[in-house]
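QA checklist item 7 of 12: single-chain prediction sanity check.
[x] sequence parsed
[x] length recorded as 170
[x] structure emitted
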Amino acid sequence: MIIPEAVHSYNVYNGTNRIIGITGAVELPGFQYITNSISLAGMPGEYDAPVLGHVASQKIKIPFTMIEQDGYFAMVKGGDDIVLRASIQTKEAETSKLGTIGMVVTIRGITTEYNLGSLEKAKLMNSDITKEITYIKIVIGNVVCLEYDKFNNIYVINGEDMLAKVRANL
């Protein structure tokens, strides 16, 4: 059994260009299903039913140490995918042998907010960019663990296409 232990290192890319100046942590989005409240005759109470593949607005904030032309402002303008490439440290449970596995997170979205940060002598600017996510894909090793595309009705979890039948019905 392989035990994932830590994110060893990661880099951020704007399309294929590595971006310098990203600070420590990039928080990945959560998924909150859009629901309908179901209350039926003869049923005591009600429950919220999630609608498969319908997810509430998702945002990602990309922190920067400084603003600069090739990274920050290129990302503000948008158009390219944001790609986070990570190396995950693992341990083999039976042998305690350390290893690594690659993880790639690809995000497509629209800039909804950007903060230039502050100017202070001998300090970082601490700027950031917020994007509305329209597409996200997470690949660990060679397995597509998650792919969600709001515009193309795609929702894959651990290799299973959750909306294949929905697309076939349309």
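[x] summary fact logged: The CA atoms of residues 115 and 149 lie 27 Å apart.
[ ] second reviewer sign-off
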